[in-house]
Structures are given as C-alpha cells and as structure tokens.
Amino acid sequence: MSTAPVPNAARAAVVYRPAFPVDPKRALVFAVTSGKGGVGKTFVSANTAAALAKRGLRVLVLDADLGLANLDVVLNLYPKTTLHDVFTGKSTLREAILNAPGGFDVLLAGSGLVEYSRLTSDVREQFQTVMHSVMLDYDVVILDTGAGISDVVLYAVSLADEVLLVSTPEPTSLTDAYATVKVLAAQQGRRTVRVVINQTLQPGEGRAITTQLQRVVDRFVPALGSGPVVLTHLGDVPSDVLVRNAVQKRQLLFTAMPGSAPAQALAAIAARLGDLVQRWQAVRSTS
Ligand SMILES: Nc1ncnc2c1ncn2[C@@H]1O[C@H](COP(=O)(O)OP(=O)(O)O)[C@@H](O)[C@H]1O
Ligand SMILES: [Mg+2]
C-alpha cells in the first residue's frame, strides 16, 4: 500500500462540516463510493435502496457518477428526462425523478455525460440546488458516486453525511480504498468511514480486511483535533453468480431473489443504515 504521509498543508486542521445544516427533518445523505472502479457501488446503492424502502423509508438514489452513469441500465429504466435536463433547465426536477422497481425513487444522470466529469462552479451549484430541493421529501438520499479521488467524485462525497466505501477483497481495490480514506480525512476532515466489502469469498473476510485497513490508517493517517479516523465495518456481500445474472437481466437482486445470500447480506447492511436514519430522526419525534 502507498503509505506516503499526508502533506503538511493538508494537515492544517481540516474539520468535518456537513454540507447541509443538520436538521432531522431532512434526509440523511449517504455517499456510496470506492477507490477502484467496478467494485459494485451501483449494485450496492440500488439494492440497499430497495431494502431501505422495504423498511418503510422514503429513499432517493441520485446517480452521481456523472461521467460513467449506469444506474439506469441496472434498473432497466429508459429515462426521457435526466439530471442533465434539469441542469440545463430543459425540465423540472419533479419531471426527472422516476419511480424505480424497488419502491424507491431515482434521479438519473443518463449515460456518459462527459461534460460533467470536470468540476466547474456550475456543476457544483447545480448539484447543491438539486440536493436542497430533494432533501425534505425523503428520509434517505443515496449518492451513487464514481470511483477514485477526482474532484468531481470528492465533491459528490462532500455532500453526504455518511460515507459508504465499497471495496472488494482484492489488494488493488484495498490499496485504492486506503487512498480514498486518506484523502477524505485530509480534505474533508472525515473521521468515520463505513466499509462494505463486496464479492467476498468466505465468511468473516470483510471484518478481517477492515481491521487490517484500520491498522494501516492508524499508522499513516494522522489523527487531527477531532480524533482518529475510524472505519466501521457495515457488512460483507458474498460473490455470487446470481448478482451477475440479475444485472444481465436488468433485475434488482433484492426483489428478484430476496432469499439469496447476497440479497440477505444487503438487507443486513440496510438494517444498520436504517438504525442510523432512526437515530438521525430521533430528534424529530421528540421535538
Ligand atoms: N457480490 C457480487 N457478486 C458477483 N458479481 C458482482 C457482485 N457485485 C458486483 N458484481 C459484478 O460487478 C459488476 C460491476 O458492478 P457495479 O455496481 O456496476 O460497479 P461500480 O458501480 O462500482 O462501477 C456488476 O455488473 C456485477 O456483474
Ligand atoms: Mg456505478
């Protein structure tokens, strides 16, 4: 793993600040991200959304992988209006929000909007405006982001309250996951990163990997004023040919094969996320 220390400039006490005011009436925002591409972010986003919807939560998944959007493909949706039309003023936000098969809503980017792969102040503003408008209508907003540490990906992640980092057990994926943690800590002051290990081959694998990753983080990512970076293992999703079959048939595994091992693993992950949402909203019921 690359263990180069974080440069001093970046160390200058970056403190995590939520992008939107902390308000239990608004959605809790999750960013699903990864170091390496193709590890299962969209699969995890869509199926976790379905599992959260089944728990009675109002969920919106926003395709925030603007350069390589493919949520539409996974959900078998052919959107007439996309985020691009909203950004360019061709349609309203309401027109662009679609009902997905899993009982949740989606805001699709449309495939290959290369012009958004660069972070301009325009993209930033439009993103913020969209988030502001949807926040109060949902309990959960999931940002299905791109991989890596490009400006656009980091910006999308910066809009979230919680980071879900997806990695496979492969060393290349883990190395890139570590790089992501390092950058999120240095640039955004993140202190909690929730880890999902996808495509595991044996039980217990993800927990062991997360512990190992935590050891590297403890050693090489400096603890700032707000404390050390803590990785929380959210769960593992086993590698299963059923996942590939479902993607090929453009079905949601969670609804098509709810009893399968990966679907049950995603249900367990959603239960943990549901607890976070409940905690977030607890103030709402008492006020
Ligand atoms: N648990 C799994 N078991 C088997 N194959 C998987 C699993 N998760 C993902 N895949 C495969 O990996 C492909 C890429 O997943 P995707 O969610 O599109 O990745 P990303 O959004 O990170 O680029 C899927 O189409 C699927 O075939
Ligand atoms: Mg994806």
Q: Which secondary structure elements does this structure contain, and how are they paired or packed?
A:
Elements: H1 8-11, E1 28-34, H2 41-54, E2 59-64, H3 71-74, H4 83-87, H5 93-96, E3 97-99, E4 105-107, H6 121-134, E5 140-147, H7 151-158, E6 162-167, H8 171-188, E7 192-200, H9 205-220, E8 230-238, H10 241-248, H11 253-256, H12 261-286
Parallel strand pairs: 1-5, 1-6, 2-4, 2-5, 6-7, 7-8
Antiparallel strand pairs: 3-4
Helix pairs in contact: 2-12, 8-9
This protein binds adenosine-5'-diphosphate and magnesium ion.
Q: Can you describe this structure?
A:
The protein is α/β, with parallel strands linked by helices. It has one domain (25-286): P-loop containing nucleotide triphosphate hydrolases (Rossmann fold), CATH 3.40.50. It has 12 helices and 8 strands. It has helices spanning 8-11, 41-54, 71-74, 83-87, 93-96, 121-134, 151-158, 171-188, 205-220, 241-248, 253-256, 261-286, and strands spanning 28-34, 59-64, 97-99, 105-107, 140-147, 162-167, 192-200, 230-238. The protein has an 8-stranded mixed sheet, with helices on both faces. Helix 2 (41-54) crosses helix 12. The protein is globular, with a radius of gyration of 18 Å. The N and C termini lie far apart (47 Å). The relative contact order is 0.19. The mean pLDDT is 91. Residues 41-42, 65, 70, 144 line the site of magnesium ion.
